[in-house]
Every structure is written in C-alpha cells, then in structure tokens.
Fold this sequence. Notes:
The chain is mainly α.
Amino acid sequence: xxxxxxxxxxxxxxxxxxxxxxxxxxxxxxxxxxxxxxxxxxxxxxxxxxxxxxxxxxxxxxxxxxxxxxxxxxxxxxxxxxxxxxxxxxxxxxxxxxxxxxxxxxxxxxxxxxxxxxxxxxxxxxxxxxxxxxxxxxxxxxxxxxxxxxxxxxxxxxxxx
Length: 161
C-alpha cells in the first residue's frame, strides 16, 4: 500500500525514538560488533547520522532555501569507513544526541512542504534527479535494514545490558 507523505515522514521520524531507546543499552553493548567482523552499534548509528547530515546539508537545506543542490553520489565505502572512525572518537551519548539532532533537522525542513515540493525533481551536484520523496523512501528502507540487524544483535545478546 502506498503511504501518504505524512505517513512517510512520520515513519522516517520514528527512528529517532528507536535510537533514543537504544541509549538504554550500555556503552559496552554499543561498542560490541553486531556479528564477527562487522560494525558496532555505535558505528551503525554514526553511519546513519552522518548520512543524514550529508543529505541535510547538501540537499534538504538547499531545497528549503532555494539554493542549488550540491549532493553527489559518493564512494560509499570511503564514507562509511570515515563514519566508523568518527564513531570511535565519540561517546554513545554524543552519537545518540547527534543522530536525533540531524534527523530532526531533516524532519523540520520537510514537514509542511506542499506535495508538489515534496515530489519535485531537482538536479543534484551530479546533474542527476533528486526528490525529497524518493530520498525519504530510500532512507526508510535503509533504517529498516539497520533496525533488523540491530534487533538480531539484541536478541542474540539479550544477556548484555
């Protein structure tokens, strides 16, 4: 079933509550790889927060202020490696606070847009099409992917607090 713009924005916003609930887990849990050789919970949330920050600064903010978009298709591996490094220099509390702040910046700027603004296609920094609706849809899927990983990790490590 197709979701309304409002429903999509609410679903995108709901991940902030989920991350705040994860704050109840210990720093030790946040620094434990979700499986052998994989990222930690802190790495995952930092990765998501930094993508939010990137898309906010290079696209959403620009749309809101009627400026040309500078968002480009980046090297994901390099971006994600930098996110892992970033997570190692911050506490769990800082990562949670930054995630909520960055996600809410996006929510604030896209809430109340007219449907035409939400679906309008803009040219990004690579001259490719970008729309807020497609971005939100893609990142809801991204959120779900990581939530599934996190929930599996929590289930397997239910003894960890």
